[in-house]
Amino acid sequence: MTQTNRLQHAAIGATRIVVGFLFLIHGASTLWGFPSEPASGVVAQFGAWPGWWAAAIQVVGGTLVMLGLGSRVAALICSGSMAYAYFVSHQPAGLTPVENGGETAALFCWAFLLLAAVGPGAFALQSLLPGRRSATAPATRHADAGVRAGAA
């Protein structure tokens, strides 16, 4: 793996950890009022649609993405939940995210979609599982390995 590839791999991993953590605390705020009160000022009631379910996806999905466990699937689900939030809660109030207050939902949606596409990057716990390798880690094979093997 080249120095550039290692840096890209680390940057993807760091982004995954930060985005997952931010999503986790956003959901924790809505579910439990921790680490701060939710933006609405009210903690979601158990089972209430869509607030409680969205917060549950945020806590579980954010944790999985942050840890790098099943992160592609978790990121895709998180992205879908934010697309739903944007189009149902924000978009009817205005055309652009600046007008309708949907910047956070839009950013989370696209960040998770990107992570679902490129994989978990470095520092993912799933790479420690037997027979698993991070999906974004390129093989560490030298370009001239075949030439050397044939010359022997």
TrEMBL record:
Membrane topology qualifier: Multi-pass membrane protein
Q: Which InterPro entries match?
A: DoxX, DoxX-like_oxidoreductase
**Record carries keyword Iron:** no
Indicate where this protein resides in the cell.
Answer: Cell membrane
Listed GO cellular component terms?
Answer: plasma membrane
Keywords, ordered alphabetically: Cell membrane, Membrane, Transmembrane, Transmembrane helix
Membrane spanning residue stretches? 12-34, 46-67, 74-93, 105-125
| Keyword Glycoprotein listed | no
Where mainly located?
A: membrane
Tell me its family.
Belongs to the DoxX family.
Identify this protein by name. DoxX family protein
